[in-house]
Every structure is written in structure tokens, then in C-alpha cells.
């Protein structure tokens, strides 16, 4: 597995809001004579009770849905993929259809004829002749026959087989492209659902802390030892956290809806409340960029464009075959039964036909020119897809490198913010800091942890996009992404 084993980080394994540590601070402050106020012990005791209640809340071990299992479900459920499979099955019939033009064509025919004719042979009296009729005037006859035609030389039909073979190869690549796109869509929706659930969990934890902070600020204000500005600031932060949680919940619902459309299942992400985060071990060295660029030719879109160019070349070759003659062998047998004995016959025929195109009004020349222009267009399309693949590789490599550096910076920022929050809480209890400083420190810490999780999610998607850009995306890569997310939060996985 590509992702390295993770290690627990000291600064990330600590919860945002530390009930035990803060309770100790409150007890220490309560015993400090310099801050003693007539009604302070009651407020502190209420705060301790609130913290104990938060700390005692029952928690259940969350589970993370399996990304490879969801992709396997999508392979069986997605309607667009099913459509492409049927398209491939239909295109495969082009090969036997083209080959049939090189094989003998056998047909049988039959006819029934009733005829009433008047002529010198059937009615000599009408023509002033005194002789008996030589043939009957009214006759019935039955005719049946068998015909066989075998092409001996037809360059156009031979090259038609090459066109059909190229069309099947292109259809197979098109199916692979649809499967790849489906894997990326499922992965993107999966990561978005994961990130939204993480943000929602972080914001709900932040709401719990801010609710307690509002109550503390309200108590302090009611006791006359707090500032109304601090109370309003706490309420404003709480309202903002509620608003952000609503947005995160909407994003989670949208991602889950996408997964349901693609996979036919509705995975559960809502219980993935964040408790502790592990330090994500990301792959820092992705190798020489030029080596990745050299593999861009394996990109499925590039391969599909190359196969479409092959179709255009084969089709143009078929058009040029219109200048060449065709040679066919014809065999036939017919048997005619008639009331007129002179019309009865049994025929065996064998012939060789040569058809030489001499002039068709300029159609063949224009047809060939059209094919040549389509070759030029397919070459331009191939160059464009290759340029896009190279650009995608370089962009994804830059993004991965940037995500790694940003994760390292956010790790340091989170550690510093945690220390600053501890100092701000301590300073507030000692009267050296106010509630606004604590709120700023806590809000900054939450924001940085949300950015940390988001950055890891973007890293995961960029790693999949890089593998896709070089045509090397596999189910193992989906498993690696899920392993990275699991290691980030230490969740068990559901199948």
C-alpha cells in the first residue's frame, strides 16, 4: 500500500475542548484568593457540572463505509456504464458483419406466373391464318432457383474488416473510460461525504464548547463580573458555528445523494463525529516529474483518441479502395415448369463478373478527400488529448507537493493554536485574558483542523487523478485512499 503507516501526533490527539484540563484550571482558579468574588463559586461549580456532563456523554465507535465495496456496487448499478456495455456488445457485431461480405452469398428465389396472351402463335385465326395454334394462350408456370456469389477480389470489403476491428477496440476503450470516470465520481463523492461528516462533527463539537462558553459568559454578566461585549461575541461565534454546521449537513446530503445514484446504496457517514485525529502520513516523494510525463501516453483518453485515429485511417483506406475493380464468381441454378412446353427449362450458370469503376461524378475523389481530412482531425484530437494528459500530470504533481507542505504547516499551526488556547484559557482564569481571546483561539484551532482534514481529502483525490492521468488507476488505489482516511481518524471499516 502506497501510504505510509501513520503515527499518533501529540498535538492532534488532544481534543479541541479539554474538559478535564479546563476543570483543573477552574478548580485552581477557584482556590486563588486574588480572584475570589461573593458569587463566583456557584458559577464555577455550574461550569464544572457542564464539563462533567460533556465528558460523560456516551460515544459509539464510528465505522467508515468501504470505498472499494461502493465502487463494486457502482459497477453493477450505474446506468451509464450499463449503456456502454450494451454499446460495446453491439459494436462487436461489426466484425462478423464485415467478414460476411467476404464469404459466399447464397440466395433462393421462387415465382408463380399466370399469363393470357394473344399472338400469332396462340391465336392464328385472329391474324387470318388457317392453322392450329402452336402454343396455349393461357398458361401457368412456376420458377425457382438458387444463386451463389463469391467475391474473388474486393479491396473495399477486405479493408472494411479493419474498420470494424478498430471500432471494437475503440468501444472497449470507451468502456474503460466510463469505468474510470465512474471510479473517480464515486471516490469524489465518497471523499466529499467524509469531509462533510468530519466538518459536521467538528462544528458540532465546537457548538458544544461555544454553548458552554455562552452560558459562562451569561453567568459572569449576570453576576456583574463579565462584559456584555464578551457575551455578544460568544453568541455570535455560536450562531456562526450553527450556520456552518447547516452548510456542512447540506454538503453531506448532496454527497450521499450522489453515492446513492451511482451505487444504489445509501452509506452511513453521519455518525463519523470527530474525536481524535492522527497525523496523516502522506507520500512526500512522487519521483521525477518527467517520468510521470513520459507515462501520459497511457492515459485512457489518449489511447481512445489514438484508436479513433486508427478508425479514421482504416476508413480512408476503405474509401480509396473505391478506385479498384471488383471480381465476383456467380453460380446459379433455376428450374421453370410451365403449361407452355416451349418455356420449360432447367438452367445451370457459372460466370465471372468484373466491375471497374470508371466515372462516378467525382464521388470517389471527394470521398477520399473527406477521409483524409478526418485523419488530420483525429491527429489534432490525439495531440490535444496528449497535451491535456501531460498538463494534468504536472498539475496533480504540483498539487500533491503543495498539499504535503500545507499539511505540514497546518500541523505546526494546530500545535501552536492548541498551546495558545491553553494559555488563553489559563490567562482568562487568572484575569490576564478575556473571553474574546479564548473564543479567537478556539475558533482558530477548529478552523485549522477543518482545513487539515480538507487538505488531506484534496490530497487523496489528487493522487487518484494522477494515477488516472497516466492510465494506472486501479481498485488498489481506491483502497489506499480509504486507508489514508481510516488512518486519519482511526475508524473501523464496514464492508
Explained architecture:
The protein has 495 residues and is of the alpha+beta class. It folds into two domains: 307 residues, Outer membrane efflux proteins (OEP) (Up-down Bundle), CATH 1.20.1600.10; 95 residues, Single Sheet (Outer membrane efflux proteins (OEP)), CATH 2.20.200. Helix content is 63%, strand content 11%. The chain contains 13 helices and six strands. The strands form two sheets. Strands 2-3-4-5 form a four-stranded antiparallel beta sheet, with no helix packed on it. The longest helix has 68 residues. The N terminus is likely disordered.
| Count of individual helical segments | 13
Adjacency order of strands in the biggest sheet? 2-3-4-5
In sequence order, what are the helices and strands, one letter per element? Answer: HHHEHHHEEHHHHEEHHHE
What is the CATH C-level name of the largest domain?
Mainly Alpha
Rg from alpha-carbon coordinates: 41 Å
For the record, give the distance between the C-alpha atoms at the N and C termini, rounded to a whole number: 19 Å
How many beta-strand elements? 6
Largest sheet: 4 strands, antiparallel
Q: What's the CATH architecture name of the largest domain?
A: Up-down Bundle
Q: How large is the share of residues in beta strands?
A: 5-15%
Shape: elongated
Uncertain parts = 1-49, 51-61
Class by helix and strand content? alpha+beta
Amino acid at each position: 500500500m502506497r501510504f505510509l503507516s501513520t503515527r499518533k501526533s501529540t498535538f492532534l490527539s488532544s481534543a479541541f475542548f479539554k474538559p478535564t484540563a479546563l476543570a483543573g484550571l477552574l478548580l485552581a482558579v477557584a482556590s486563588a484568593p486574588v480572584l475570589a468574588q461573593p458569587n463566583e463559586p456557584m458559577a464555577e461549580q455550574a461550569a464544572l457540572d457542564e464539563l462533567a456532563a460533556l465528558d460523560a456523554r456516551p460515544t459509539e465507535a464510528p465505522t467508515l463505509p468501504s470505498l472499494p465495496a461502493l465502487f463494486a456496487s457502482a459497477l453493477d448499478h450505474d446506468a451509464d456504464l450499463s449503456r456502454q456495455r450494451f454499446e460495446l456488445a453491439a459494436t462487436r457485431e461489426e466484425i462478423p458483419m464485415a467478414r460476411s461480405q467476404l464469404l459466399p452469398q447464397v440466395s433462393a428465389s421462387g415465382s408463380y406466373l399466370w399469363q393470357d396472351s394473344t399472338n400469332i402463335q396462340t391465336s392464328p385465326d385472329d391474324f387470318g391464318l388457317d392453322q392450329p395454334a402452336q402454343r396455349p394462350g393461357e398458361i401457368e408456370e412456376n420458377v425457382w432457383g438458387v444463386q451463389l456469389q463469391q467475391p474473388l477480389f474486393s479491396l473495399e470489403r477486405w479493408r472494411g474488416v479493419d474498420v470494424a476491428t478498430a471500432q471494437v477496440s475503440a468501444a472497449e476503450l470507451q468502456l474503460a473510460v466510463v469505468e474510470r470516470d465512474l471510479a473517480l465520481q464515486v471516490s469524489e463523492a465518497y471523499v466529499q461525504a467524509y469531509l462533510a461528516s468530519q466538518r459536521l462533527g467538528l462544528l458540532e463539537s465546537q457548538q458544544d464548547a461555544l454553548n458552554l462558553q455562552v452560558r459562562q459568559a451569561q453567568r459572569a454578566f449576570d453576576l456583574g463580573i463579565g462584559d456584555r461585549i464578551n457575551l455578544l461575541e460568544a453568541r455570535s461565534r455560536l450562531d456562526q458555528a450553527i450556520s456552518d454546521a447547516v452548510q456542512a449537513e447540506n454538503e453531506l446530503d448532496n454527497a450521499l445523494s450522489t453515492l446513492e445514484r451511482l451505487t444504489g446504496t445509501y452509506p452511513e457517514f453521519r455518525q463519523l463525529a470527530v474525536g481524535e485525529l492522527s497525523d496523516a502520513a502522506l507520500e512526500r516523494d512522487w519521483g521525477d516529474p518527467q517520468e510521470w510525463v513520459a507515462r501520459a501516453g497511457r492515459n485512457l483518453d489518449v489511447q481512445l483518441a489514438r484508436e479513433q485515429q486508427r478508425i479514421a485511417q482504416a476508413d480512408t483506406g476503405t474509401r480509396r479502395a473505391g478506385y479498384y475493380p471488383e471480381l465476383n464468381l456467380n453460380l446459379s441454378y433455376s428450374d421453370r415448369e410451365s403449361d407452355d412446353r416451349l418455356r420449360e427449362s432447367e438452367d445451370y450458370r457459372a460466370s465471372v463478373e468484373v466491375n471497374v469503376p470508371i466515372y462516378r461524378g467525382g464521388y470517389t475523389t471527394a470521398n477520399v478527400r473527406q477521409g483524409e481530412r478526418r485523419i488530420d482531425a483525429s491527429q489534432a484530437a490525439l495531440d490535444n488529448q496528449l497535451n491535456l494528459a501531460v498538463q494534468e500530470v504536472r498539475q496533480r504533481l504540483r498539487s500533491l507537493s503543495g498539499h504535503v507542505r500545507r499539511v505540514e504547516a497546518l500541523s505546526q499551526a494546530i500545535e501552536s493554536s492548541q498551546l495558545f488556547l491553553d494559555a488563553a484559557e489559563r490567562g482568562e482564569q487568572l484575569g490576564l485574558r478575556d473571553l474574546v481571546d479564548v473564543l479567537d483561539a478556539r475558533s482558530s484551532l477548529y478552523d485549522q483542523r477543518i482545513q487539515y482534514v480538507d487538505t488531506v481529502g484534496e490530497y487523496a483525490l489528487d493522487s487518484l487523478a494522477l494515477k488516472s492521468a497516466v492510465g494506472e488507476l486501479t481498485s488498489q488505489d481506491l483502497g489506499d485512499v480509504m486507508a489514508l482516511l481510516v488512518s486519519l481518524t482511526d475508524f473501523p471499516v464496514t464492508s
